[in-house]
């Protein structure tokens, strides 16, 4: 899919999943993805897509709904359900990509910082070795002059 996924790339796989669910080859349909919270935090999540989880809202359970649906409710629900699953899968893919890019960014920042500190340490070791070499050379010159 690359770094720029499109919904059209997901329609085929979603269609296969929904067909397997409709035919009874799948009892439940889940999506496993990383929920992107911020650059430093991504949380692995498992969400049930089908069958739709029951609502916990008591007000909705006890309210009487009197709506007339056109076209018929089955066709409407089939279309809405397909769009819902497509959007949830797309969101999972996009959040996974965002999480991956954030993890890469954090890893590269850490590598850059570690490289900088390594350069400082090596520069210090080099300067100490150079200073020791100069001191030894001066000592040899002074010793040679004293011997003459």
Tell me what the structure shows:
The protein is α+β, with helices and mostly antiparallel strands and 148 residues long. It has a domain at 7-54 and 62-116: Pyruvate Kinase, Chain: A, domain 1 (3-Layer(aba) Sandwich). The protein has 3 helices and 2 strands, in the order αββαα. It has a two-stranded antiparallel sheet. A hairpin with a 2-residue loop joins strand 1 and strand 2 (41-50). The radius of gyration is 32 Å and the shape is rod-shaped.
Topology:
Elements: H1 7-22, E1 29-38, E2 41-50, H2 58-62, H3 73-147
Brief overview:
This protein has 148 residues and is an alpha+beta fold. Helix content is 65%, strand content 14%.
Give the number of DSSP strands. 2
* CATH homologous superfamily classification of the domain at 7-54 and 62-116: ATP synthase, F1 complex, gamma subunit
| General form | rod-shaped
Strands of the largest sheet, in order across it? 1-2
Provide the low-confidence segments as ranges.
none
First-to-last CA distance: 80 Å
Please identify, by name, the CATH architecture of the domain at 7-54 and 62-116.
3-Layer(aba) Sandwich
Largest pleated sheet: 2 strands, antiparallel
Radius of gyration: 32 Å
What value does the average pLDDT take?
89
Task: Output the structural class.
Answer: alpha+beta
What portion of residues belong to β-strands? 5-15%
CATH class of the domain at 7-54 and 62-116: Alpha Beta
């Amino acid at each position: 899919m690359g770094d720029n996924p499109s919904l059209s790339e997901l329609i085929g796989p979603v269609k296969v999943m929904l067909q397997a669910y409709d035919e009874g080859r799948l009892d439940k349909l889940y999506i496993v993805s990383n929920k992107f919270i911020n650059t430093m935090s991504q949380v692995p999540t498992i969400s049930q897509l089908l069958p739709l989880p029951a609502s916990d809202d008591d007000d909705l359970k006890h309210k009487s709904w009197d709506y007339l649906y056109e076209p018929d409710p089955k066709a409407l629900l089939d279309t809405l359900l397909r769009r819902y699953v497509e959007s949830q899968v797309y969101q999972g893919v996009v959040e996974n990509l965002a999480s991956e890019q954030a993890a890469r960014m954090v890893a590269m920042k850490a590598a850059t910082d570690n490289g900088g500190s390594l350069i400082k340490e090596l520069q210090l070791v080099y300067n100490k070795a150079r200073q020791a070499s100069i001191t030894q050379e001066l000592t040899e010159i002074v010793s040679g002059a004293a011997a003459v």
